[in-house]
Write a structure and sequence with these properties.
Elements (H helix, E strand, L loop, with lengths): L16 H34 L3 H4 L4 H9 L7 H9 L3 H17 L33 E4 L11 E4 L9 E4 L20 E4 L5 E7 L11 E4 L1
Parallel strand pairs: 5-6
Antiparallel strand pairs: 1-2, 2-3, 4-5
């Protein structure tokens, strides 16, 4: 039933039995209406919620969330961060490259030549060191023996001038000699020419033949 309340009561108006019954009935009807509304609302809600799926509303299932959280490939872990922090930076790589280049230069000689301050050893067999004249057509090994004059050559072995045939062993230190010694013998093949400091040559010939030819000052030894 529809309840129509009385809203114009007066202070001296008598409340009758019918008025109280009407009021009570209105309360009962209101309570029943509230219960009906609750029941209908619950039924509607249950019906609609039952048809709602996570996919329909874009919700994430807990299993999907847990799998996502546990996927180390998608997240920056402490181990990954440490690995990234340990990676070389461009500046660090350049500094190391510069250091390596400097070390390589200090530990080797360029093909154009250079200076070695320590001893040099060659452990190859046969032709250990080859001195080639190249386009200069001569080659020799120089010695700078004096500490006081490191730029002054002390002597050399080789072919000092282009195209010459004779191998020179020369001591350029004033008053110096060339000593050739052996524990047994020193063998000279062919004739031996002795030149004094005045440019005069003396040829020493050792032969089984009788002396012949030659010039003044030559020495012929027949054996």
């Amino acid at each position: 039933m529809n309840y129509t309340g009385k809203t114009n009561w007066q202070f001296d108006e008598v409340v009758k039995e019918a008025d109280l019954n009407r009021i009570e009935q209105g309360l009962l009807d209101a309570h029943a209406g509230v219960e009906t509304a609750k029941s209908e609302a619950k039924a509607y809600t249950d019906e609609k919620v039952a048809g709602v799926t996570p996919g329909a509303i874009g919700a994430v299932k807990k299993s999907d969330f847990d799998a996502h959280t546990a996927d180390a490939g998608l997240h920056v872990t402490a181990a990954k961060q440490a690995a990234w922090d340990a990676k070389e930076t461009p500046a660090g790589a350049q500094a190391k490259a510069n250091q390596a280049e400097g070390n390589a230069k200090n530990a080797s000689l360029p093909r154009s030549g250079g200076v070695i301050t320590g001893p040099v050893e060659s452990h190859a067999g046969g032709n250990n060191i080859a001195l080639k004249g190249g386009s200069a057509d001569h080659s020799y090994l120089s010695f700078f023996a004096r500490t006081a004059s490191p730029s002054t050559r002390s002597g050399y072995i080789g072919y000092p001038n282009a195209g010459i045939k004779d191998l020179h062993i020369k001591n350029e230190i004033a008053g110096g000699s060339v000593d050739i010694t052996a524990s047994k013998v020193v063998t000279v093949g062919g004739s031996a020419i002795v030149r004094n400091n005045k440019g005069i040559n003396t040829t020493i010939i050792i032969s089984t033949a009788a002396p012949s030819g030659g010039t003044d000052g030559d020495i012929w030894i027949q054996i």
